[in-house]
């Protein structure tokens, strides 16, 4: 029960969310910093190690699937908050990994359409909050994904635009099934 005058607190996500701040994006458009200020994520230093968790890496070849849920629940999810205009393998792969040495356990998100004001309608160019929300949804935590997007421009639109895709991805049991869903949804061979 809440005492009078207190503000309701949001439930903590079932998966610990971490953010690596690169600092090259526009401060007003930085959803990662807003998540940190709201206490919905913690900052991860680039020199840190995350051997148990999952780094969301747009250069990874393996997509995030529901099978990754136990590992994410144990070790967390890490997103790299950087500008899409300056995105490189060095930004996307924190902790000193390169394209020839991918981040262990790094996963790319399945194909989705951005709904944020900066990249609306672009496939794959999600902002940090969209990426983390999509990951939570795929890993079986849709209510937490919706809560994470509250108060962000395009948050509701992101779910409206991608809900059917997210449901199909959440139903994929293997990497092969998820990649088949992507091909069916986006027409890639």
Sequence-ordered SSE layout with sheet pairings:
Elements: E1 17-21, H1 31-37, E2 42-43, E3 54-55, H2 69-75, E4 77-81, H3 89-92, H4 128-138, H5 142-149, H6 155-170, H7 175-186
Parallel strand pairs: 1-2, 1-4, 3-4
Helix pairs in contact: 4-5, 4-6, 6-7
Quick structural summary:
The protein is α/β, with parallel strands linked by helices and 189 residues long. It has helices spanning 31-37, 69-75, 89-92, 128-138, 142-149, 155-170, 175-186; strands spanning 17-21, 42-43, 54-55, 77-81.
- Looking across the biggest beta sheet, what order are the strands in? 2-1-4-3
Structural class by secondary-structure content:
alpha/beta
Rg for CA atoms: 16 Å
Helix content: 25-40%
Number of discrete helical segments: 7
Number of domains: 1
Task: Give the CA-CA distance, first to last residue.
Answer: 54 Å
Query: What spatial form do the alpha-carbon principal axes imply?
Result: globular
Mean pLDDT: 81
Low-confidence stretches: 1-8, 95-102
Oligomeric composition of the shown chains: single chain
What kind of sheet is the major sheet? 4 strands, parallel
The amount of beta strand, in percent, is: 5-15%
Total beta strand runs: 4
N-to-C SSE series? Answer: EHEEHEHHHHH
């Amino acid at each position: 029960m809440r005492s009078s005058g207190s503000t309701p607190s949001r439930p903590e996500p079932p998966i610990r969310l971490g953010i690596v701040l690169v600092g090259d994006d526009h401060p007003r458009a930085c959803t990662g910093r807003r998540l940190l200020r709201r206490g919905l994520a913690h900052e991860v230093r680039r020199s840190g190690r995350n051997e148990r968790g999952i780094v969301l890496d747009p250069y990874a070849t393996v997509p995030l699937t529901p099978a990754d849920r136990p590992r994410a629940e144990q070790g967390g999810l890490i997103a790299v908050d950087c500008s899409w205009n300056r995105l490189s393998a060095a930004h996307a792969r924190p902790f000193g990994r390169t394209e020839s040495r991918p981040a262990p356990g790094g996963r790319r998100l399945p194909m989705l359409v951005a709904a944020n004001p900066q990249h609306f309608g672009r496939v794959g160019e999600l902002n940090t909050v969209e990426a983390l929300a999509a990951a939570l949804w795929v890993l079986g935590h849709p209510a937490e994904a919706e809560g994470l997007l509250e108060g962000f421009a395009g948050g509701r639109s992101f779910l409206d635009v991608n809900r059917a895709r997210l449901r199909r991805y959440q139903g994929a049991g293997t990497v092969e099934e998820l990649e088949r869903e992507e091909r069916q949804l986006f027409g890639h061979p």
